[in-house]
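Blinded run. Sample ID left blank on purpose so nobody reads anything into the name before looking at the predicted structure. Input follows.
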Amino acid sequence: MSKVELHKQILENLSTAVVLLDHHMVVKYANPAAEMLMQASLRRLSQVSVTDWFSPEQEGHKDLQTCLDTGHPYTRREAKLVTQGGDHLTVDYSINPLFMSGGKQLLIEIEARDRLMRIEREEDLLTQHATARSLVRGMAHEIKNPLGGIRGAAQLLERELADPSLHDYTHVIIEEADRLRNLVDRLLGPRKLPKLEAVNIHAILERVCQLVEAESRGKLDIQRDYDPSIPEFTGDAEQLIQAVLNIVRNSMQAMQAAGTDDPSISIKTRAFRQITLGAEKHRLVCSVEIVDNGPGIPEDILSKIFYPMVSGRAEGTGLGLSIAQSIINQHQGLIECDTRPGETKFQLFIPLELNHESVR
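Blinded prediction complete.
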């Protein structure tokens, strides 16, 4: 292998995006990492202006021109780039001038920060949720034991009471003990392993849409944007329906409570490659975005919405999102949330290749 071939192979296997510009700011080379980052092939990148890569508020094109004029390297942290697909990315980039026989060129190294920030956020979310689940399990154990004793004592007391009219009081004790036990069971979420079978994500979503459309009596506009290429994957259809239904129903109820004009929910599916969820990297992941035009989630509870008993509605139980997160976690996935007034987005990530040994 020649040195040229070796260098080319090294560049093409880097996870860092590398781009070479000529003195006219035209892309002459982009390694596969750069093509993936910018969501375009080298041929397409060479046909668009590099100034289009930067958000309007950024001055990245000035950095390039300054580096070209002065010959001094330049580095910028947490800059904003716009991909050819229209996505906004947070990146660190370094610009280095190269003095070639054909004139001065610029070598740009781009390191995506979004992925690292997202991994950190996901790990924190998973840790918080696991901690909350552990606390709930411990609390549930401490509650259910005395509840069983109270219920049993009430039943024994009822047998000893000669006056039947006093049985009403023991019935109240028994019924309230049962109600608290059911509440604790709901706090614990799914208590059985998923019933794994081949499932189609769009069949699951359509089932949820039917249920919600019936509940809303036609007053909710549901828009669909499905990727038909997403293959079937192994999962528990019943639990996944419950998870998605909890999120969609939560959105619908939030809009109803706020009196949102023309309430709507859009559901979009996409397949993403090489996605890291928590500490594990997955080759192919199904993404389900559920976006509503409601009032948004209050900032003071946004970081806690997946905790049990946390709700933004006075009549809410605070269990729906917690249970949904638990179900998706059982499928080795994750739910994220982003919100602002007029738009709240829940994004579900579900690996399309489930590791059965990791299912809990």
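Unblinding after everyone has recorded impressions. The chain has a mean pLDDT of 83.
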